[in-house]
Please model this.
Amino acid sequence: MCIFCKIVNKEIPAKIIYEDENTLAFLDINPRSKGHTLVIPKEHYETFDELPEETAVNLTKTIKKVVNILKSLNPDGYNILNNNKPIAGQEVPHVHFHIIPRYNDEKEAVIKFSEPVNVDLDEVSKELNIE
Ligand code: 5GP
Ligand code: ZN
Model:
């Protein structure tokens, strides 16, 4: 059983900040900022595309609730992040969204994307069958 399923089953402890029938939100054990929270569906899916639509909707509703709960920490902004598969930085194979409050006095608040690469947008458009 994956580590987040164990948290859902209360087999390992976590600082839970919100819970309902379908979703759970708890503090990240290695916070990148004060209030860094993970939001997960209780059911185990590895990646976002695998989620049934209703589960994705429930997860989104919980993300919004958690953003509101975290307002009590008075952040100046926040990131919402979801990594899918190891190549994209996913370490725990149970879908999760990071909510990372950001504060004006942080040294490295901005999450860095990888460098821009040379991709021909016309070629991509062809592959996607768009104009
Ligand atoms: P990923 O790299 O998969 O997007 O993020 C996984 C996150 O899960 C990391 O930020 C990591 O600190 C967090 N994490 C890993 N194991 C545990 C745990 O047992 N408890 C909690 N609360 N967070 C965890
Ligand atoms: Zn799991």
In short: The helical segments are 3-8, 53-70, 121-128.
